[in-house]
């Protein structure tokens, strides 16, 4: 049996203050999907914003690329307990799509190629991007390319892959994983993995 000196607590990861509870750091970028990987050519990709009144505004790939672009360096956290530090992305802040949009909605749903959806409060979109580049390269289909949502303050399932639009709603409507028992919000610092985890 191993014995330890008094006060021994193991070796802390140098970035442990950035590691949410229950997570472990990884250098890799695991690929997790609920179904087949959609492969959408950029010339066929569109992004549509739909208000709670049914009004729509759409962007082609070229129109999206003409919007203001930002470089983002952030940590990401998967509900399966891995975290990856200092990931590098480039994309359009979601607030650029929301500019001049009038809404009485308080919630939103992301809709994706392949049928996936996820939900969140509308205010969370102010800290989100539609990203198309990862680590200096075009985002691969396996990681959600040609474009995915990036919402790094929540578990990664909220950063919907293969995003094709956002729907603004007055009422919260659970998405794919939320309907299957995942937490409705998904804050990694509060370990909101399942529906009955702390609010």
UniProtKB/TrEMBL annotation:
Tell me, what's a Pfam family for it? Oxidored_molyb
Annotated region Disordered: the residues are 1-38
The record ties this protein, via InterPro entries, to: OxRdtase_Mopterin-bd_dom, OxRdtase_Mopterin-bd_sf
Residue ranges occupied by any Oxidoreductase molybdopterin-binding domain in the UniProt entry: 35-177
Matching entries from SUPFAM superfamilies are given as: Oxidoreductase molybdopterin-binding domain (SSF56524)
User: What's the superkingdom here?
Assistant: Bacteria
What is the protein's name according to its record?
A: DMSO/TMAO reductase YedYZ, molybdopterin-dependent catalytic subunit
């Amino acid at each position: 049996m191993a014995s330890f000196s008094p006060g021994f607590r193991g070796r802390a990861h140098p970035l442990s203050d950035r590691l949410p509870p229950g997570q472990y750091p990884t250098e890799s970028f695991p690929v997790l999907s609920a179904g087949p990987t959609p492969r959408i050519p950029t010339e066929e990709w569109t992004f549509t914003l739909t208000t709670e009144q049914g009004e729509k505004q759409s962007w082609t790939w070229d129109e999206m690329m003409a919007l203001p672009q930002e470089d983002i360096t952030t940590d990401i956290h998967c509900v399966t307990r891995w975290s990856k530090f200092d990931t590098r992305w480039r994309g359009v802040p979601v607030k650029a799509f929301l500019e001049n949009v009038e809404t009485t909605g308080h919630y939103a749903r992301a809709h994706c190629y392949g049928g996936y959806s996820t939900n969140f409060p509308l205010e969370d979109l102010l800290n989100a991007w539609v990203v198309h580049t990862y680590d200096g390269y075009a985002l691969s289909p396996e990681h959600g390319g040609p474009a995915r949502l990036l919402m790094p303050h929540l578990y990664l399932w909220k950063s919907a892959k293969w995003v094709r639009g956002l729907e603004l709603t007055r009422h919260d409507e659970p998405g794919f994983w939320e309907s299957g028992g995942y937490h409705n919000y998904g804050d990694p610092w509060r370990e909101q993995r399942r529906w009955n985890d702390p609010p």
